[in-house]
């Protein structure tokens, strides 16, 4: 009998132990999991933050929110309206409204999230400002920024449509004023806004987000006057980074009244600070996403091989310069010149880094030069010089901006040779590579004579103060000298004006011209072949006095760099003297996005700022 009762007694003991266990306790867990639980929010995980859950419990609507979210939100607002709830409830209302908007698709709740978040961030009384270490501060800013973009989303969700008008709120109405004049950007109108928070960036190793207030957007542009078209150096496909702000006055009082008024504005990404409710606050910025969006829709990539094999028409006054933003007086131009079978898009990561450097961005503006890389180097260099002259003359016809007289030109590979030809005095040495007959004695039509003179008689541009050579074949490239390169070069077509010039030279001056033995015009590949008359002449010319020069030379591997190469250009070819600095980066030929290359360019630009 005793044995039979033992299982029953054990079960009774277990029931008694369970009844007596503590209802509150702890258990050891993974610290990362605990941290995720403490820092979660509707923006990061889709779950409400711990502080909002606490507010739901405090006002007795935690269970109600699951089945009746609108009723729970209204009850919490009532607590605030009657002065029972404090500012912490405003942040919870912002998160609850955002979540319900996400789940229901009701735009009015996104707008409510914006209003509540703004009221939490910018209270009327300075004594009520959030503690800087309060984690709700960043969450409220993100709710405001994302909620603002979603509040003005188009029906298909692809664009943000900025406009004024009256909009429903769950507790009343929001009246928004918006000045369409704020859409003007230089000589253009901003249009087709896209929320960069919806853009996943690839192809750039770094993505910069400058946290602050406002919805960061990327905008397309259209001419202000359609008949005039685009009359600046900004390409039509550029996407402009801007930040949208919706400001309120006395917003907590307006929440109580149920009628809220605000002003919607656009802030340029070049401005770091905005004035909001009497305070200077940082603007939210996302320039990396706008840059990637620009390049994704640009025709630059298609120009790489095509630009090597085909020339373009005739010389005209159309600039081959492209800027990513309108000219801004007081900012020094930095001009990037790409290399052979490449394009301006290859500078993307360098521009991404430099434009997000707060020590540099307010002092420099970045320009891109594009050219057909199979053309003779003297021809392409002429286009660069003339494009820069035309830009300076157009942007500053009275010479009132000293920043334009401090230009920096940076060239990669063949682009480095073009860069050098902005800062040399050639005399007649280039002409002597073509003919021993004095230039004045050659029989040429006036138009041909003018073109040839502009190509081979080179003078330093007075406004170029600093040049940077990156992986530049100063003495030629053994890669350009191999048979495969010369075989490919046979398929290069030349601009019409070059063909006419060659015909005039050969037909009228056959015995005087050195290139007749080639049976064709020399290409950039010919020009960069070691021992070629052109590259020998260019290598013999020093950078003009007063112009600062820097070399960044790529060398692969870990061996002695003096005997190395980058796979295209040998160190001995890239090395020239004198230069202000020479920096060797362990990399292949295309080192423009190498972090050490970018850091050296950053250092050079800072040095340029400090120079008298």
CATH class placement of the largest domain = Alpha Beta
For the sheet with most strands, the description reads: 7 strands, mixed
Total strands: the figure is 16
Strand order of the largest sheet: 1-2-7-6-5-4-3
Q: What is the percent of helical residues? A: 25-40%
The average pLDDT score comes to 86
- The CATH architecture of the largest domain would be 3-Layer(aba) Sandwich
Total domain units: 3
Structural class: alpha/beta
CATH topology of the largest domain: Rossmann fold
Basic shape: elongated
N-to-C CA distance:
107 Å
Q: Topology of this protein?
A:
Layout (H helix, E strand, L loop, with lengths): L1 H19 L10 H9 L10 H9 L3 H6 L1 H13 L5 H18 L2 H15 L13 H17 L13 E5 L2 E7 L5 E2 L2 E8 L19 E9 L16 E9 L2 H7 L1 E10 L4 E4 L2 E4 L4 H10 L6 H7 L11 E3 L8 E6 L10 H8 L8 E6 L7 H19 L11 E6 L1 H7 L8 H6 L11 H11 L7 E7 L12 H7 L6 H14 L14 H4 L5 H7 L8 E8 L15 H4 L6 E6 L8 H16 L2
Parallel strand pairs: 2-7, 11-12, 11-13, 13-14, 14-15, 15-16
Antiparallel strand pairs: 1-2, 3-4, 4-5, 5-6, 6-7, 8-9, 10-12
Helix pairs in contact: 3-6, 5-6, 6-7, 6-8, 7-8, 13-14, 16-18
């Amino acid at each position: 009998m005793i044995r039979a009762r033992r299982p029953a007694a054990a079960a009774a003991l277990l029931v008694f132990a369970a009844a007596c266990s503590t209802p509150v306790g702890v258990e050891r867990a993974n610290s990362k999991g605990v941290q995720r639980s403490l820092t979660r929010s509707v923006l990061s995980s889709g779950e409400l933050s711990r502080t909002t859950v606490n507010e739901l419990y405090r006002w007795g609507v935690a269970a109600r929110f699951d089945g009746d979210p609108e009723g729970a939100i209204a009850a919490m607002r009532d607590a605030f309206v009657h002065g029972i709830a404090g500012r912490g409830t405003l942040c919870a209302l912002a998160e609850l409204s955002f979540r319900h908007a996400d789940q229901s698709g009701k735009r009015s709740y996104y707008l409510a999230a914006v209003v509540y978040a703004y009221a939490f961030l910018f209270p009327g009384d300075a004594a009520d400002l959030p503690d800087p270490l309060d984690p709700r501060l960043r969450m409220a800013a993100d709710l405001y920024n994302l909620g603002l973009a979603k509040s003005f989303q188009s029906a298909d969700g692809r664009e943000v449509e900025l406009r004024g008008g009256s909009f429903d709120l769950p507790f009343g109405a929001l009246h928004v004023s918006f000045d369409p004049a704020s859409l003007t950007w230089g000589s253009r109108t901003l249009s087709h806004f896209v929320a960069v928070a919806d853009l996943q960036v690839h192809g750039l190793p770094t993505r910069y987000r400058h946290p602050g207030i406002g919805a960061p957007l990327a905008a397309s542009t259209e001419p202000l006057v359609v008949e005039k078209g685009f009359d600046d150096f900004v390409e039509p496909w550029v996407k402009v980074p801007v930040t949208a702000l919706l400001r309120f006055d006395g917003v907590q009082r307006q929440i109580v009244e149920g009628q809220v008024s605000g002003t919607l504005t656009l802030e340029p990404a070049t401005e770091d600070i905005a004035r909001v409710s009497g305070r200077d606050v940082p603007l939210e910025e996302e320039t990396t996403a706008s840059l990637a969006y620009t390049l994704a829709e640009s025709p630059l990539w298609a120009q790489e091989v095509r630009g090597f094999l085909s020339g373009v028409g005739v010389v005209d006054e159309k600039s081959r310069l492209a800027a990513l933003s309108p000219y801004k007086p007081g900012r020094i131009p930095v001009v990037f010149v790409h290399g052979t079978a490449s394009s301006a898009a290859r500078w993307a990561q360098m521009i991404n880094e430099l434009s997000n450097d707060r020590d540099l961005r307010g002092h420099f503006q970045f320009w891109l030069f594009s050219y057909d890389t199979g053309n003779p180097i003297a021809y392409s260099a002429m286009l660069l010089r003339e494009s820069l002259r035309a830009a300076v003359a157009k942007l500053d016809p009275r010479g009132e901006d000293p920043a334009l007289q401090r230009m920096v030109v940076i060239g990669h590979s063949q682009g480095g040779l073009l860069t050098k030809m902005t800062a040399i005095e050639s005399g007649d040495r280039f002409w002597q590579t073509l003919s021993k007959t004095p230039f004045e004695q050659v029989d040429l039509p006036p138009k041909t004579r003018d073109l040839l003179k502009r190509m081979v008689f080179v003078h330093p541009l007075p406004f170029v103060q600093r040049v940077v050579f990156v992986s530049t074949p100063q003495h030629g490239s053994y890669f350009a000298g191999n048979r495969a390169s010369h075989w490919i070069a046979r398929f290069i077509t030349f601009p019409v004006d070059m063909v006419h010039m060659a015909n005039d030279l050969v037909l009228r001056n056959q015995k005087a011209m050195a290139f007749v033995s080639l049976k064709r015009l020399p290409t950039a590949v010919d020009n960069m072949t070691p021992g070629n008359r052109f590259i020998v002449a260019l290598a013999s010319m020093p950078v003009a006095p007063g112009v600062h020069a820097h070399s960044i030379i790529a060398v692969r591997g870990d061996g002695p760099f003096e005997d190395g190469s980058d796979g295209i250009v040998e160190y001995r070819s890239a090395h020239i003297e004198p230069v202000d600095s020479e920096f060797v980066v362990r990399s292949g030929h295309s080192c423009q996005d190498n972090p050490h290359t970018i850091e050296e360019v950053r250092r050079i630009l800072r040095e340029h700022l400090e120079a008298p």
